[in-house]
Amino acid sequence: MALPSQTGFQDAASPIMEELIHFHDHALMIVLLISTFVAYIMIAMTTTTMFDLYTLDSQEIEIVWTILPAAILILIALPSLRILYLMDEINDPHLTIKTIGHQWYWSYEYSEYENLEFDSYLIPTQDLTPGQFRLLETDHRVVIPVKSPIRLMITAEDVLHSWTVPALGVKMDAVPGRLNQTALSAFRPGIYYGQCSEICGANHSFMPIVIEAVPLQNFEAWSSAMTEYLL
What we know:
The chain is of the alpha+beta class. It has two domains: 74 residues, Orthogonal Bundle (Helix Hairpins), CATH 1.10.287; 136 residues, Sandwich (Immunoglobulin-like). Helices cover 34% and strands 25% of the residues. Strand 2 and strand 3 form a beta hairpin. Helix 1 runs antiparallel to helix 2. The longest helix is centred in the first third of the chain and has 33 residues. One of its GO terms (molecular function) is copper ion binding.
């Protein structure tokens, strides 16, 4: 989860989020180098006393400022495209979860488990127990096994929503009448918080997402208990 006054990303809990953070740092260093170079050129040009009235063009400079930006764009585009395809790649998922956005809560269906479906509502502030977080806790968490590729099928029943969990590198729009697909994976146990990231109405800020990643045996015990409870 985010911390007070945090300015950077949340700690990565999935391979995709790690790749996104690395790409962010890579792009930021390129931006820093370009900004420093441009600042130096501006200062040098405004403070120099040397000039040449008879220089009309320079083929060498033309070549440099054409080739150099193209090379920089390639250095940014190649890793960006790689991550884009990794985010779309879903090979042999172990579990499929259908997520449906409503005004203003989420509902979940575990496709491989009969009758395992539930709604997930925000826990009101007055009902929170010590250690729970205001506006982030839900009455039912989405439990997933760690180190397992999971396919998310995301849609909405009424208006646009967006299912987002920053620590796992997942952000996918929930569109009425459309089924969007994305991959989800957590490489360590933990509880990861997210929120709807598409302005969807008056209670947009009151539909959080809580993912609980647990070892496989704990997930199987939870799914069995949850199925019996729902029956």
